[in-house]
Design goal:
Among the domains are: 71 residues, SRF-like (3-Layer(aba) Sandwich); 70 residues, no CATH class. Helix 4 packs across helix 5. It is mostly helical. The protein is built from 7 helices and 2 strands. Strand 1 and strand 2 form a beta hairpin. Helix content is 62%, strand content 3%. It has a two-stranded antiparallel sheet with strand order 1-2.
Amino acid sequence: MTRKKVQLAYITNDTARKATFKKRKKGLMKKVRELSTLCGVSACAILYSPYDSQPVVWPPTQEETQRVLTRFKSMPVMEQSKKMMNHEEFRKHTISKVKDQLKKQRKENREMEIEDLMYQILGGKGLHEVSIQDLSDLTWVVERKLKEVHDRIEHLSKDAQNIHADHEPGKTSLAMAIEAMQMQPWFMELMNQQEEMGPVPDEMTLPYGDDSSCFDAFFP
């Protein structure tokens, strides 16, 4: 069963808010400790709340906490606030991200719609039935498809040129095909078996010359 997505909003119920704070405070401190230990980075977290008389601090030692804070305060003001984000800024960032995703999805849907229209026109649908906006978008889709075809042709042409350049000069295609066949495992195994059997006796060879009686059944 999937977990229910938590709504990012202020919890109005006092009991639920206090329970959530205690649970997430413990998780936050654990993550800060893991981040510092696993990645070897300097990290510090200070939490003030109406539920605790003293702030909750990590690292646990005052010296380490002071060292991290001193290092942070020594940075220029612009660098200190470069990646800071309050609740309002976080919501704006989230909304902007969702808008970008929606815009991308709308574009993909529109492309699929225009591609379907293109196939309908190829199937006999008249252009007089298509709106100006659809025709404009159709032109863009067709041009993109043509570019993809041209790029693919160019790529295949370069591959063919590279293969031709790798061939040894003066060697025919038949010779290269024979060499390729001789490198196949089944051919090498067949040759090894023939070497183990020794030379073929004369009585097992096919007749040549005018005596072609063995082929009479197949070639009239």
